[in-house]
Specification:
heterodimer, A: alpha/beta, Rossmann fold, Arc Repressor Mutant, subunit A, 3 domains, 9-stranded mixed beta sheet, 3-stranded antiparallel beta sheet, 15 helices, B: alpha/beta, Ribosomal Protein S5, domain 2, 2 domains, 4-stranded mixed beta sheet, elongated, disordered C terminus
Chain lengths: ~350, ~500
């Protein structure tokens, strides 16, 4: 498999994928039908390139801790091999073994409500605990929240039990060495160390807007079911849904309040026939797993609210409300409500976004 | 063939006495003005000549030299016209010089010989103490604010000459109008619902806390801001005179009585330049919006749209209550102690409830970054204003009227004046320890906020100042309890943590 320079075949495949003017289709055909090195040597006549770029690619991947798998390799993920538009070359960190687990894709808006974040985080925690891998895009908002939830569970679980935990699988739309968004840098590394961080783009490739829909098709292809936690009526998550439907992958949506714009897409999906998901049990059922495995286990770790504060909590339950709304509808003095909100917030029952208060309930 | 007439020129809000010296001698007929006049001053030559001829006086066909003393100081404006005319009349012997000894003159001349008002009459007159000052009739009211007894008025140059000779009378300026103006602020009773914003406005007025309203378009930010000056106590005599001087110097309109007795409300557009905001300009150093708002409210609507340099220039007046303007030719200090009221949308689209905003992250971040750090930190109160509910909007019951709120505000201002000699917003950290002690529960609440990193050291002091005012409003003069601190925290919305932390 290696030539006189001693470079492995994957380096040729990786270098081929980065050629200017190389289309996904051409690359796929080349790699499926001939040895990467032969394909490379043949391409030298078509493109102004030198042997150096292969060596450079090899060094770059070694240095940046990136592994490469091409569609011709036996380790190439099975689900992608039979995909209508498979990526011919994948760059990854971590272990492809994560794909052996049952896999749920969880996606959503980049500007969610706090309760959307809470739901995503809760799903992540419980799926990790139940040995189910979660595929997501490591974006802001829901995507990041679900993997963050998994991380919370990993941090709590003892090191010895970590073998039996669900793995995080992150599919990103830029080179693995280009962290985007920057605010998720910690999570990005964590996913690479504990699960699988995946991209079809080579080192240094920037996150151009057109790459995100491409990335979404891989999320859909790697998932057994796709769950949309919160999404507007248009946006990246809806593209992921379209890709999933194209592949006959079942799509679920978390219902939201009709008054919240960022739940407009998920509610629309439910109207159009997607199954609603309100707890992780629904996902077990969808994966044909025994949903009783979580029965009886409660993930509610918060201290119950004081009885005096319940009336405030109830008022915040149906979507975000303002302080004015609380004062006027509860007919209580402002300072009473301030004290209740302060206590509830300290216990984690309510959250404040720019003066809007929202309950975080299961 | 020589005369010296007194007049004044303006620098900032100070009138400086000027001697207009006129010499008429033999030589080629001509008219020169020396002594650093600006363009408007130099053009006085043509106005004065025409005005004299129109008034039936004789123009001396000789060499006329005018010197404006002290000669080293730059003179601006048109207020020297009348003094110039009087000087020529006296030097050419058309009126006796000794009649002019105790007078000074501040007015512009029209080509027909009429007297016209000049900006800054009040400070100009104030700079001419111990003399009788002749001004144009429209300037009489503000001139009397500076010097009530020694103001004379005449409609034309001819009338001035006749009155000086004793052949005519000065115009009667004993004003029919009272010196006191009436309040013209809209009433708080128009505000329906909005308990949080109302409370915040009351605190701002009572403790002198700068306030930022954050809310969607149409939520009522401007409505409440416009009613805030009505909650402030009327100006003291000294403040009223200062405010009038500033308005007069800036050429801004004055109330019917001439004296500004109610807190001014200034709302400059966000295109305002640095000089428009803090004052300046070539020769007169005109006061800016910050000074015009002295004793009242400076309202910056869409505060994020102002040029960052303009907002930064407000930091000195916010800290020190005055603006010091330095120019190569001169420097002045202008009073500028105002209540800063800002209003902004939470994001470019106007936002609203979480999940309703349709801005992308970069646009939102860029929008909020415009209001960054140090400036945002000056606001003790940062209040989210939400759209009034339909029920409240349709409710026929009126909100609490301004008069009642103002009474509470006045009481708290008295309390804090006796306690610390000023408003609560200006309590120092040491004074806070003395005058605003915390109960244990209240301290624990603040400790948690500090530990979570949601409160900075400076924010900690600001919260305690607001809590002091809040406790004063509820009649509590002692330790600050937990609920007061909680409310103070709610009235300081975090702006930069809009992105939900994951």
């Amino acid at each position: 498999m290696s030539n006189h320079l001693g470079l492995p075949a994957w380096a040729y495949a990786a270098a081929l994928s980065q050629l200017e003017g190389m289309t996904p289709k051409k690359l796929r055909i080349a790699l499926l039908h001939e040895d990467p090195e032969d394909a490379w040597n043949r391409s030298i006549s078509d493109y102004p390139i030198t042997e150096d770029s292969v060596a450079r690619m090899f060094e770059c991947c070694e240095e940046k801790n990136m592994q490469v798998v091409s569609i011709a390799d036996p380790t190439y993920p099975r689900t992608l091999r039979y995909d209508p538009t498979p990526p011919a070359v994948l760059f990854y960190r971590g272990s492809l073994a994560a794909l052996q687990q049952r896999r749920v894709g969880i996606v959503g808006t980049r500007s969610p409500t706090p309760s959307g974040v809470y739901t995503a985080r809760e799903f992540g925690e419980q799926l990790a605990a139940n040995e189910i891998a979660v595929v997501s895009g490591l974006a802001r908002g829901i995507d990041g929240a679900v993997h963050h939830g998994m991380k919370l569970h990993y941090d709590e679980a003892l090191p010895s039990t970590s073998q039996a935990l669900g793995k995080p699988i992150g599919v990103v739309a830029c080179g693995l060495d280009v962290v985007y968004p920057k605010s998720n840098a910690g999570l990005w590394n964590w996913v690479g160390e504990n699960g699988l961080l995946l991209s079809e783009y080579g080192p240094g490739v920037q996150p151009e807007p057109y790459r995100f829909p491409q990335r979404n098709r891989i999320i859909a292809a790697l998932s057994e079911v796709v769950v949309v936690v919160e999404s507007r009526e248009s946006g990246g998550s809806m593209l992921t849904v379209a890709e999933a439907i194209r592949r006959n992958i079942e799509v679920f949506a978390v219902p939201g309040s009709p008054r919240v714009a960022s739940a407009g897409g998920t509610n629309l999906l439910i109207q159009q026939g997607c199954g609603p998901v309100t707890s992780v049990d629904d996902l077990f059922a969808a994966l044909a797993l025994d949903h009783r495995r979580t029965a009886g286990s409660s993930y509610e770790t918060r201290v119950p609210p004081d009885a005096h504060d319940l009336y405030v909590l109830h008022e915040c339950q149906d979507g975000a409300v303002t302080l004015d709304h609380l004062v006027l509808s509860l007919r209580r003095p402002l300072h009473d409500i301030a004290v209740s909100l302060g206590r509830l917030e300290a216990l984690g029952w309510v959250v404040d976004t720019n003066g809007w208060w929202e309950a975080l309930m299961r | 063939m020589f005369s010296s007439i007194r007049s004044a020129t303006l620098l900032g809000i100070q009138g400086t006495p000027i001697s207009v010296e006129v010499h008429i001698g033999s030589g080629l007929p001509g008219f020169t003005v020396v002594g650093l006049p600006d363009e408007a001053c130099r053009e006085a030559r043509d106005r004065v000549r025409a005005a004299l001829l129109s008034s039936g006086a004789e123009w001396p066909n000789k060499k006329i030299t005018v010197n404006l003393a002290p000669s080293s100081q730059r003179k601006g404006g048109v207020g020297l016209d009348l003094a110039l005319a009087m000087g020529i009349l006296a030097a050419s012997g058309q009126i006796p010089i000794d009649h002019l000894a105790e007078y000074s003159f501040v007015a512009e001349l029209g080509l027909d010989g009429s007297l016209r008002p000049v900006p800054g009459a009040a400070p100009l007159v104030a700079g001419l103490r111990d003399t009788r000052v002749v001004v144009a009739p429209p300037n009489a009211r503000e001139a009397k604010v500076a010097s009530p007894r020694s103001i004379h008025c005449a409609g034309t140059l001819r009338e001035v000459v006749l009155a000086l000779r004793g052949d005519g009378e000065w115009l009667d300026t004993s004003s029919q109008e009272s010196m006191k103006g009436t309040t013209h602020f809209a009433d708080m009773s128009d505000v329906r619902g909005q308990p949080t914003a109302r409370l915040a406005a009351e605190i701002a007025a009572a403790g002198g806390h700068h306030i930022l309203f954050v809310g969607s378009p149409g939520a009522g930010k401007t409505m409440i801001a416009e009613r805030l000056p009505g909650l402030l106590p009327p100006l003291t005599n000294e403040e009223a005179v200062t405010a009038t001087m500033i308005h007069s110097a800036a050429g801004a309109s004055l109330p019917p009585g001439g004296l500004i007795t109610f807190p001014p409300f200034r709302a400059p557009h966000h295109s305002a330049s640095m000089i428009a905001m803090v004052g300046g300009g070539s020769s007169v150093l005109r006061p800016g919006e910050a000074s015009l708002a002295h004793g009242g409210v400076l309202f910056l609507d869409e505060v994020g749209e102002f040029m960052p340099s303009v907002l930064d220039a407000l930091r000195q007046p916010l800290e020190e209550g005055e603006v010091r303007i330095a120019r190569a030719s001169a420097g002045v200090t202008l009073p500028a102690r105002f209540l800063l009221v800002g209003a902004t949308n939470p994001c470019p689209c106007g936002g609203g409830a979480p999940g309703a905003c349709v801005c992308n992250e970069t646009a939102r971040a860029r929008y909020l970054r415009r209001l960054s750090g140090p400036f945002l930190d000056r606001f003790d109160l940062r209040v989210a204003v939400a759209m009034t509910g339909v029920e409240e909007l349709l409710d026929v019951r009126e909100g609490e009227p301004t008069a009642i709120v103002q009474e509470r505000v006045a009481r708290v201002r008295q309390m804090s004046l006796h306690r610390s000699g000023g408003v609560n917003a200006r309590l120092s950290a040491q004074e806070l320890d003395t005058y605003a002690p915390l109960t244990n529960e209240a301290r624990n609440v603040l400790r948690r906020e500090l530990e979570l990193g949601r409160l900075t050291g400076r924010g900690y002091h600001r919260i305690r100042r607001v809590a002091r005012t809040l406790a004063d409003l509820s009649g509590n003069d002692g330790e600050i309890p937990e609920d007061t601190i909680r409310v103070a925290l709610l009235l300081r919305t975090r702006l930069h943590e809009r992105d939900v932390a994951i």
